[in-house]
């Protein structure tokens, strides 16, 4: 009985942490079903995301420091979107006034929502990291993973080498979290896999509602290839490393363990 209660509580905290992504999915569904007046759909999605971001900060659901992290992810995601659409990896076929080189500005919020989830879950579950590797290892690894999203179009794809390196670097690292004043722990690498898998599920929902289109979805929607899980896994790792590194820079780590629930 206690295990079920803890599971429900954990699920509720996760759901609260996913508030921003849920609003994005709901907006995608709403604007897919209904034609809103005055503006194209992509522009409505941008304004909804901006309004949601303002609301979360205004009512204390996100701190200003968390907003800075989310803004950073928006820029990182937008840069990736600009490159990937240029290379033909996917497209945004609908019209919009607020687009840069064919990429609607709301797209960066889909990456920012991942950062929002990480920041929210970190704070709500009082996440701590045990035996976190040094910055001199973490920063180059995160940079290499992010750059591979670009360079594999011109050079060999080293994602599997990077994945193996992640396992080696974080072999001894654990993430601990609190549910109803009881602490639990799991290997950090496992948390990467779980988050990456659920983002792949979210990606299928997003493409179903027309957030973007892969080449094989032009005529009719189809399931996103399961191989994309590896891409999201690596992107989650980059996201997590950036959040954790910023926390470390702000002095929230002590003796290799993150002790502060806030960014």
Description:
61% of the residues lie in helices and 9% in strands. The chain is built from nine helices and seven strands. It has helices at residues 2-17, 19-33, 41-58, 64-86, 107-124, 135-151, 159-169, 188-208, 228-249; strands at residues 99-100, 103-104, 128-130, 174-179, 182-187, 253-254, 257-258. It is globular and about 50 Å long. The relative contact order is 0.14.
Oligomer: single chain
What is the succession of H and E elements?
Answer: HHHHEEHEHHEEHHEE
Number of strands: 7
Largest sheet: 3 strands, antiparallel
Strand order, main sheet: write it out.
3-4-5
Overall pLDDT: 79
The helix content, as a percent range, equals 55-70%
Number of helices: 9
What share of residues are in beta strands? Answer: 5-15%
Q: Rough shape?
A: globular
Structural class based on helices, strands and sheet pairing: mainly alpha
Uncertain stretches of 5 or more adjacent residues: 252-263
Rounded to an integer, what's the Rg over CA atoms? 19 Å
User: How far from one another are the termini?
Assistant: 34 Å
Characteristic terms for this protein:
263 residues; mainly alpha; 3-stranded antiparallel beta sheet; two-stranded antiparallel sheet; 9 helices; globular
């Amino acid at each position: 009985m206690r295990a079920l209660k803890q599971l429900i509580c954990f699920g509720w905290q996760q759901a609260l942490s996913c508030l921003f992504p849920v609003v994005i999915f709901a907006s995608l569904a709403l604007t897919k079903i209904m034609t809103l007046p005055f503006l194209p759909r992509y522009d409505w999605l941008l304004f909804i995301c901006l309004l949601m971001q303002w609301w979360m900060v205004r009512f204390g659901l996100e701190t200003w420091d968390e907003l800075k992290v989310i803004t950073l992810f928006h820029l990182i995601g937008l840069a990736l979107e600009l490159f990937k659409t240029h290379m033909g990896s996917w497209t945004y076929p609908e019209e919009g006034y607020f687009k840069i080189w064919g990429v609607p500005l709301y797209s960066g919020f889909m990456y920012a929502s991942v950062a929002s989830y990480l920041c929210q879950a970190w704070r709500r579950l009082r996440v701590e990291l045990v035996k976190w590797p040094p910055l001199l290892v973490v920063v180059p690894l995160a940079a290499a993973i992010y750059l591979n999203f670009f360079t594999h179009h011109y050079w060999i794809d080293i994602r599997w080498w990077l994945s193996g390196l992640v396992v080696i670097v974080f072999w001894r690292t654990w993430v601990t979290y609190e549910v109803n004043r009881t602490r639990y722990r799991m290997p950090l690498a496992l948390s990467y896999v779980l988050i990456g898998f659920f983002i792949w599920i979210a990606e299928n929902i997003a493409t179903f509602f027309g957030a973007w289109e892969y080449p094989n979805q032009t005529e009719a929607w189809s399931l996103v290839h399961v191989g994309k899980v590896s891409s999201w896994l690596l992107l989650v790792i980059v996201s997590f490393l950036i959040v954790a590194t910023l926390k470390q820079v702000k002095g929230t780590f002590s003796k290799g363990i993150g002790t502060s629930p806030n960014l």
